[in-house]
Amino acid sequence: MSCGGHGGGVIGGQIGAHQGGVEARPRGRGLSFKARSLDKRQACSAGPRGSPIGGFRVQETTVTSWDQGWAPLYDAADTMRMMQDYLDFYAGLVTPGTASLLDLGCGTGSVTVAVAEAMRAHHPDAPALGIDLAPAMIDIAAARDGSIGWAVGDICDPPVTDRYDLVICCFHTLQLLPDDAALGQALAAARRAMAPGARLAFDIYQPNLDFLKMAAAGGLEPGRIVRRFPDRTGRELIVREEAVCDPDTLTYSGTWFLHDAETDARLPVDPMVQTLRQIYPEDLARHMAATGLAMVERYGDLDGSNFTPDSKRQVVICAPA
Ligand SMILES: C[S@@+](CC[C@H](N)C(=O)[O-])C[C@H]1O[C@@H](n2cnc3c(N)ncnc32)[C@H](O)[C@@H]1O
Predict the structure, then answer these.
(1) Number of domains in the chain
(2) Is position 287 within any domain?
(3) What is the Å distance from ligand 1's center to 154 Cα?
(4) Is the ipTM of this complex over 0.90?
(5) What does the pLDDT average to over 81-90?
(6) CA of 36 to the centre of ligand 1 (A)
(7) What are phi and psi of 287, to 5 degrees?
(8) Strand spans (E) along 84-212
(9) For 272, how many CA atoms within 13 A lie in the half-sphere containing its CB?
(10) Over the stretch 107-121, which tens digit does the pLDDT of each residue have?
(11) Which domain holds residue 201?
(12) Per-residue pLDDT at 311 exceeds 80
């Protein structure tokens, strides 16, 4: 995903407030419907109305995760984060004592595989498990590396009985949980999955209040371009986003529409809505204390920079309290 916190676009969103990278929309190609805020676990039919796009009506369903048509695009569309920083940071958590790995919300498994490889340099047969709610993401992860265990599951109640030396939850996945109760459940489940002496590491955005208030005030251009990337054939695609930001909670919902970059024609992939909740440092500290987790390190980004009130991210390493 990534934004809500910092910039535009729910995934990897550095476009917007921080980089000013929003592209103008060609005239006369407007999206004429409004994004709706949905419960992230429910698929919602748009009904017979459909959406008038490019002169024809599209019958559509809105999906609420990286599943169905979007999963095969995840890696190509993941253009806005410094992936090498992610791989280096999480693989850098491996020590000679790390002999098991659990990745909660593993997506297509790119980080899981890098960390597992670092671990297996010390322990060639060490078990690794990635869990994700979206079956299509798990399918891609499994094709990436068959030596890792992959499972469809909810990180609030993960299908896990073993204990792990390193538990990770990368790229603001915790912000995709629907409410405080779910966040507490996910942290408690992560805590239960930790072996004695284990570490839990995750990264979330720090709320970017200027950007979010601007979004809540309707300041984002409807249908702005938040991603541009080539598909497997080299065809250039763009993602247009309709965003709503709740003025009270600053929860940010972005609905993504896939278009051909050259013609701007809407492509037949169901729109995807993702909702990012804001998690403030003090709320995170409260949740961690309630679930028996102690923060041992905190950074402001995946490059290991110091955490400050203005940091883009909250990158946290915890131990059992
Ligand atoms: C922003 S992606 C991050 C994926 C991966 N960690 C990475 O770094 O590329 C968030 C992932 O969390 C998954 N997800 C969202 N809510 C989840 C839940 N409750 N349980 C398990 N996975 C979830 C989504 O399907 C998606 O693959």
Answers:
(1) 1
(2) yes
(3) 9
(4) yes
(5) 95
(6) 21
(7) -65, -40
(8) 101-104, 128-132, 149-152, 164-169, 194-205
(9) 21
(10) 999 999 999 999 999
(11) 1-24+63-321
(12) yes
